[in-house]
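BACKBONE GEOMETRY TOKENS:
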Amino acid sequence: MNPPRSGPPTLAERARRFDREQARGLRALAYRMLGSRAEAEDMVQEAWLRWAEVDESQVQHAGAYLSRLVTHLCLDRLRSPAHQRELYVGTWLPEPLVDELQDWQPDPQSQAEYAQELSLAFMLTLERLTPLERAAFVLHDVFGLDFDAVGQRLLRSGTACRQLASRARQHVKAGYARVEVAEEERQRLLDAFLDALRGGDVDALARVLAEDAVLLSDGGGKAHAVPYPLHGGARIAKALVGFTRQVDLRALRVTRTRINGLPGYVVQDAEGRPIQTVALALRPLASGDGGVRVTVAEIYVQRNPDKLGHLAGLAGASDVTSGPSGPS
């Protein structure tokens, strides 16, 4: 039996502990700040490089120190010219998080809360906030830090951070509404959506969509995509069926999954390369008979290859069938 080792931990031991205790939560924070899994990973890697040079014995609370570090790294990235969305070609959507490959969901948190906080509509609403508003809102309303702790991370007073979060909350409430839909209903809508596309049935697809449905498609200037939001259920249904008829469905594979907590699917070619993700945001509507009917209110199509590379890990998934590709 080897005697216990004394002295400070080695760099390898620190790296393992960092990854086990801190990295998942830091990635979750960075993704909500930046809307990009790849950039979130970059921020965590940069945080580790800086943390590796710190004497841990001089740090009172490692978690607070690291979250403050990642927050400031994200703020710098948000303010950089390279991150300005007005330079982006076409519609910008966050990099998709797929459940099968998502290993850094923060704990403790219910699946419903997780789905709401990472939904694409919610992430797009966060994009409309200033960097400081976004940071204050995410740290307080999402991660539950009190305003004094938020102030320590943002180098602002607790009162100033309360005002930042309040302004952010008003924007979020104006642009995003939480929606609760039973899992069975979510799967029924996804089945109906896919069946209508496979069958090329425009009318059936239109019945699944809300009359004021919106389709957003992100190609980043690197893949064919609808360059602007497409409005209207009937118009979207006609466009989607038209796109689907242009491709050979036998050469494609579809993996059903949750994308940012929403029902959706990943489309891959025969070699398993990801082509796009499709996520469906649902909305309950009161029906004429006094009941409630659930429809698809928003469709988010990610086609930018720079945001799909990490999905190659789904190539061996078991839930794979031939299916539609959507906009192309």
